[in-house]
Write a structure and sequence with these properties.
Layout lengths: L1 E3 L5 H11 L19 H9 L3 E7 L2 E10 L4 E8 L8 H10 L6 E6 L3 H9 L3 E2 L2 H11 L4 H5 L1 E5 L1 H6 L1
Parallel strand pairs: 4-5
Antiparallel strand pairs: 1-2, 2-3, 3-4, 5-7, 6-7
Protein name: GNAT family N-acetyltransferase
Keywords: Acyltransferase, Transferase
InterPro entries: Acyl_CoA_acyltransferase, GNAT_dom
Length: 165
């Protein structure tokens, strides 16, 4: 079952994100990886900024989470993570499809340039890489990330964004 996560889920969301983010160690730039990958303070900030987390739950256990954030003219997919023990089971695809169906707005997704598995996941699900030139403008406009993160990230878009131009 996919459901909207609540305040009481914060600790589990935090655990899932930090468990799954271990895959970044040694892959993303060394100066961008730290443990925990997301602090509880950062998670609270994201939720206060309007990131709505949805989770896939089986037997009363959240197995994966994914956030969506309304940014006016677009929606951002944020913080897509599946427990390491549950990967490759379709959880990410189910969550992504659910979030896509929540909005009529164009969808943008940012991820690490070196996280090839994440990029391939979004490409497989119908998203397209944005040009390097447009990437920087979009990351400045819709995200609040460091210049270093902008240098080392990519942005993907859905068909609605592509046809919106």
């Amino acid at each position: 079952m996919i459901r909207l996560c609540e305040y009481r889920d914060k600790e589990v969301i935090h655990q899932i994100i930090n468990d799954a983010a271990q895959a970044y160690e040694g892959v993303i730039p060394y100066d961008m990886y730290h443990e925990p990958y997301m602090t509880m303070e950062d998670l609270n900030h994201e939720m206060n900024e309007g990131v709505m987390f949805w989770g896939l739950e089986e037997n009363n256990e959240l197995l994966g989470v994914m956030g969506i954030q309304d940014k006016g003219e677009v929606s951002l997919i944020r913080h897509a993570y599946v427990k390491t023990s549950q990967r490759k089971g379709g959880i990410g695809t189910k969550l992504l499809n659910h979030l896509i169906n929540l909005t009529d707005k164009p969808i943008l997704i940012g991820t690490w340039e070196s996280a090839e598995w994440a990029i391939n996941f979004y490409l497989k699900n119908g998203f397209k890489l944005i040009s390097h030139e447009e990437k920087g403008e979009l990351l400045h406009r819709f995200w609040n990330v460091s210049e270093r993160q902008i240098e080392t990230s990519v942005v993907l878009c859905d068909r609605k964004w592509d046809s919106n131009k």
